[in-house]
């Protein structure tokens, strides 16, 4: 309390533990900091295990656990990336055997498609979508179904392995008996309901802002596309798709990066409003809120592309319009999976490169520079200064430690990218792995060289982060189920092959997924201005949907095929979700939480301890009988009157005492 | 080890702790057994809380926990039964407003239905199904959807409350530091694979036997129905349905009761084969296997009725036949929900009445009688004998204690009935409640008067039973989702009302669910022998299915409506399952595992303890300084050299010592 109030009243400007010594100095005695710098905070040792024991010794258990967790996560990403790369390569290898894309690309294919926008767009040949169709196959093949099941089990395995690793570290670091309980006696219960209400309203508002921005980007895309289509410059018109997609993705990324900072501040403000009773409770509430906001921020655009885009377009002759003039956007032929994949890679790589590397390396360097300039000693030579200054002075130039929350948060969002949409992006684990190999050493460098030494804190586990991981893994199962069944064409292909195909092959699938439209049914003012674009008069054009043809009794009604495919899609979601959940539960159940050797070791120590207590008791009785010394006796019997429970000793305390013998 | 080997070699016939005294004796000093008999093992105190403290004192923690659990479960059943009864009453009250059953019962309704069996059955009027349609409404109305969501949350609440109660009992019974760890050092790992294989094969075989028996009962039902239909006696023919259903349900019940015993033995044999390393592991494996087998045994016939019956019948003109002559059975009009309900109530009530009451009361009485006769002292007068005999002799006449497994097992199966199919049987909680009110006192009576006093065993929790409860609660969510969407007519009604109804009401629903069949399309030899049964020539008959009419392009094909309804059904399952799982997680998260007052209390005790340790240390230093006595000093410092961890004390040991001050 003393130092805190002195800091608060400005008597001291800062209080921090000192670093062990200098890193670069060629001093005679090697110190822990130097050792860490050489053996840990160094890119050249990236393939080695981290010296977690030393990290814990120097920075405390809490930071040690973070690096242990990050290490295990990175290690577990290796098999995931391997399988992901194999799945991707499988897609590449089978792209030429894929009948639907072969049919689209076939030169004799002359299916005329309906215009993609009103008036300015014209009819087009399906064969021009050949490239997209082939590319889609890379991410939309049966192997991705296998991969998303694999990744769900991988997530379960990861959680289990972490539990075991944590248990082992707890044992090795003598934490088995430690519990960081914080109980507040204060009963401030009044005036908290308004705070809760503000919280909920604000959280919903923030999520609403995210939605609004996503909607704004959609509007931007639609309107820009329409504007560019009308451009007289043919080059512009040809590059419409690319221009719009790229700029929209960049806008999305920039918005995500900005909102991430805003949401961090909002979450902190909201948590302060709530007046949590303890520091731990404050931290947990803050983390929870920040996570929810950042999660929505990162994943809303992706969820829109995966599940809503291209589904709310209406049909030719009766399109859906936003603000009565903009037609809702469609996906390129081959489903939205390709676009999802592009968006995912841009967001993930962009976030990692900009947020992690630029912000994490650049900003601390900048801050250090500013602090250096401000301290009026810029005139001194760097080396000279270092020699002259005391340890506490050198450390004062370093950035203060701001907690592990940003580091963990970044990893949680990354874990989301790795698990949530893995069905559509099998390379995500590989990107994550590459990022994390750098991340570990980057964080290490930051902790060893850029930050003031943090106050060592004890911790038994990674706390609320474990629950967040578990939550993400749970959500991942259902999202992957929906991606496979709704975003990819996996189910329509299956349904066609087993229910509609005349010869049991995929031949004719493309034709089956396209409905017919009679161009005379276009609304007035919506028909294309350039009907002879393809060189002939079009009477029937095709569009991707399951609807009745113009010549049926109920033209353009949703067809039986649509409902069949929908039913199979939903059935797949149920089967996938429950099978994967069951398998995860089995993994959870098969892998014991405490490693066998650790539990044996703990058990043996307990037996040793009981023996010791027994001997001690006997020895005491012996001494008491032989030489009665009142003062000492009373004291001993008081401190040992828990002998009735000796047969069932508790680990913590005793483990420590046993070890010290 | 000593007494066990003496028992094994037959030197002693039995070893058991003695009861406190006689119950009926008008002795001067009241003993605990008598107190328990009066205040606990007595039907007249059924409305009171159990004296759990006394139960624990007399029988030990393990049995105390069982009764505490049973008490909480019974208590939690009260709100569940109340809501269940209200839901049932809602069904009763709205039965006259139910448009579909009104339409069926309407005198002007003259829909002609297709025959229910080949040749001997004839066409029938839908209005004759009026009674069943009205009865179905009792269990198939929107309130049951609400009720199954309610019961899923109820199950989550129950688990949470039990965790809290257990924590409280742990604190009150000084078990916070106790851990019943059993670690075996023996590394017998060879020769276990064959045992595991035998296990899996046998388990599958046993489950196969269950399936075979269920199938046998189906065959019995089909063939008996066919035989009785051909009977010349008109009374027999009229009572066909009732006779067949009742006998089949009784056969099912008897088979379940017999197989329950067989499976118990099989599970034990299989577990012995596995050679588990510790007693605890043996018990857990045995319980797990027994539960799986008994669960399948109890629920397979019910699952068949709920999800398969009436779904594999084919259609008129192309029925599905078993062994080429027996047509698969259909459900009565109004879905299989009614039959499911009948089967559920018969199985549940039958199991409870016969297994619990008859077996639990009758068999021990019988055994006691046999032992009494065998002991050659039957000539003595009962009272005289009691007076003459020593305590250990009287107790020897009692049944030995055989573990809590059967008691728990029975409750788990009951919990299954209460949660798994609650959507179709809202009165299940009420039946369970009535049974349990008796069960508590019955078990109490058994423990106090019929059994030898069990060896008191310590336990911190109810062990594997908690996991089983959790598993049942999980399975319940998905089964209820399927019952609502597939067994009940809830979804077809919704789909009709919002998609097909011309005026947005339920009028016309019955007609919509019936397909048309042209009787000239019956296969040869399958048409009815009595075509003029209704008094007129039938050309088109109706059957319950969504198929194209004979006059469509694709007659008798599955129609678009079928796929629409199926898609909505599956969507409902997904939404229901995920919403309920989310809500259960929220309940789990909102209710803290440790009651507030207990955690405060534990915290306070810890602070007290730290103070005490500090004072003691100071006192010791004082003593050592003032009067150096080598022997005592050395001893004290050794027994207190864990002072380095005093700042982080662990509950167990210290809680005990604090309390004894």
UniProtKB/TrEMBL annotation, chains A, B:
Organism: Mastacembelus armatus (zig-zag eel)
Molecular functions per Gene Ontology: intracellularly calcium-gated chloride channel activity; protein dimerization activity
Top-level taxon of the source organism: Eukaryota
Full protein name: Anoctamin
Transmembrane regions listed in the UniProt entry: 66-90, 143-159, 200-222, 242-266, 286-307, 411-434
The keyword RNA-binding is annotated on this UniProt entry: no
Region (Disordered): 625-661
Family classification: Belongs to the anoctamin family.
Keyword entries, A-Z: Cell membrane, Glycoprotein, Membrane, Transmembrane, Transmembrane helix
Membrane topology designation: Multi-pass membrane protein
Chief location bin: membrane
GO cellular component, one term: plasma membrane
Subcellular locations according to the entry: Cell membrane; Membrane
Residue ranges annotated for the Anoctamin transmembrane domain, each copy included: 55-605
Compositionally biased tracts (Polar residues): 637-646
Pfam entry (one): Anoct_dimer
Anoctamin dimerisation domain ranges (all copies): 1-52
């Amino acid at each position: 309390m003393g130092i805190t109030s002195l800091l608060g009243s400005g008597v001291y400007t800062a209080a921090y533990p000192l670093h062990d010594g200098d890193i670069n100095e060629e001093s005679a005695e090697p110190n822990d900091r130097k050792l860490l710098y050489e053996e840990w905070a160094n890119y050249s040792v990236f393939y080695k295990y981290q010296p977690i024991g030393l990290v814990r010794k120097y920075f405390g258990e809490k930071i040690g656990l973070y690096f242990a967790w990050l290490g295990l996560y990175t290690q577990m990403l290796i098999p995931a990336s391997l399988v992901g790369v194999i799945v991707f390569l499988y897609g590449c290898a089978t792209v030429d055997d894929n009948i639907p894309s072969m049919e689209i690309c076939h030169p004799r294919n002359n299916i005329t498609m309906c215009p993609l926008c009103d008036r300015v767009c014209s009819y087009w040949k399906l064969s021009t979508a050949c490239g997209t169709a082939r590319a889609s196959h890379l991410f939309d093949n049966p192997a991705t179904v296998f991969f998303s099941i694999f990744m769900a089990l991988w997530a379960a395995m990861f959680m289990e392995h972490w539990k075991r690793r944590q248990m082992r570290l707890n044992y090795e670091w003598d934490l088995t008996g430690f519990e960081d309980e914080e109980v507040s006696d204060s009963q401030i219960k009044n005036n908290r309901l308004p705070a809760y209400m503000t919280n909920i309203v604000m959280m919903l508002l923030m999520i609403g802002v995210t939605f609004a921005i996503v909607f704004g980007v959609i509007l931007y895309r639609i309107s820009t596309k329409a504007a560019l289509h009308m451009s007289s410059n043919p080059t512009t018109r040809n590059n419409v798709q690319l221009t719009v997609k790229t700029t929209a993705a960049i806008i999305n990324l920039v918005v995500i990066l900005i909102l991430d900072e805003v949401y961090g501040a909002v979450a902190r403000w909201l948590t302060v409003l709530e007046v949590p009773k303890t520091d731990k409770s404050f931290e947990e509430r803050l983390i929870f809120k920040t996570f929810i906001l950042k999660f929505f921020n990162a994943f809303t655009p992706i969820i829109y592309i995966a599940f809503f885009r291209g589904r709310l377009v209406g049909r030719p002759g009766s399109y859906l319009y936003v603000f009565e003039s903009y037609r809702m956007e469609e996906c390129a032929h081959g489903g939205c999976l390709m676009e999802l994949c592009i968006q995912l890679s841009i967001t993930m790589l962009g976030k990692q490169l900009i947020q992690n590397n630029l912000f994490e390396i650049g900003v601390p360097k900048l801050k250090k520079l500013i602090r250096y300039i401000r301290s009026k000693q810029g005139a001194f030579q760097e080396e000279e200064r270092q020699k002259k200054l005391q340890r506490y002075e050198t450390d004062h130039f370093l950035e203060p430690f701001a907690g592990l929350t940003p580091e963990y948060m970044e990893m949680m969002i990354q874990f989301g990218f790795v698990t949530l949409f893995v069905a559509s992006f099998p390379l995500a684990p590989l990107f994550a792995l590459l990022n994390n190999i750098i991340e570990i050493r980057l964080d290490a460098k930051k902790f060893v060289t850029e930050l003031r030494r943090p106050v060592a804190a004890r911790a038994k586990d990674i706390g609320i982060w474990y629950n967040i991981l578990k939550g993400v893994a749970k959500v991942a199962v259902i999202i992957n189920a929906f991606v496979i069944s709704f975003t990819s064409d996996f189910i329509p292909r299956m349904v066609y092959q087993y229910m509609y195909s005349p010869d049991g092959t995929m031949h004719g699938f493309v034709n089956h997924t396209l409905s017919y439209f009679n161009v005379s049914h276009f609304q007035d003012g919506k028909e294309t201005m350039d009907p002879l674009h393809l060189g002939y008069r079009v009477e029937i054009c095709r569009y991707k949907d399951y609807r009745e043809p113009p010549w049926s009794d109920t033209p353009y009604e949703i067809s039986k095929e649509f409902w069949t495919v929908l039913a199979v899609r939903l059935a797949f979601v149920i089967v996938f979700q429950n099978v994967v959940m069951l398998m995860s539960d089995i993994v959870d159940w098969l892998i014991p939480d405490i490693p066998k050797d650790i539990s044996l070791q703990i058990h043996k120590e307990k037996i040793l301890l009981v023996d010791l207590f027994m001997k001690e008791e006997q020895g005491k009785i012996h001494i008491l009988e032989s030489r009665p010394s009142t003062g000492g006796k009373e004291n001993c019997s008081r401190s040992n009157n828990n002998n009735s429970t000796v047969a069932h000793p508790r680990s913590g305390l005793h483990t420590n005492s046993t070890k010290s013998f």
